[in-house]
């Protein structure tokens, strides 16, 4: 599946909420309202005046709408990157630049290289990981960072973290509530997870960008976010 094309169609599909258009369940609309607060706590540039913020795969739901309101309050320049169909659902403003492309786009990277005080990549990284060269994707992201800029690759669906959760008592109870029966989750610790992110990939990314001169951190998500039990965030900071 080409996920970029899929979400273009989602943006144009009648009858969906904006929460559903970006790939979450309708029942997660309230949980989604906590995402922006979690992002703000990890990106200091979001509470600073006149910074440049880039959101890759911004979508059209609550987090980007609050990002826009925040940019207005702090007089920030906001660069929103997504499909033309998704961007059309967001307002036109003088401090907003909409870029309709699938990242990494060479012209875009050249234009914004070294200019971003903060970059948000929320619930997006799993798609280039599965479909493209995810190392090139991340290398192009860090190229956009200004000195002391922060890149947040957030909402990473870590299959190993999911196993840890489903092996716990709270995870078993969550599974049973979700399925509506008394079954236990099927957790296979010695099985290679070839089709998704796991601890080995995330640890490799942490080490790769440290060896390239960046600081890197693995951060938990606040409880109450749509998938907080099984996801975590990678923060990369340019020195």
From TrEMBL:
It comes from the Bacteria. One of its GO terms (molecular function) is methyltransferase activity. GO terms for biological process: methylation. Keywords: Methyltransferase, Transferase. This is Class I SAM-dependent methyltransferase. It comes from Thalassotalea euphylliae. The lineage of its organism: Bacteria, Pseudomonadati, Pseudomonadota, Gammaproteobacteria, Alteromonadales.
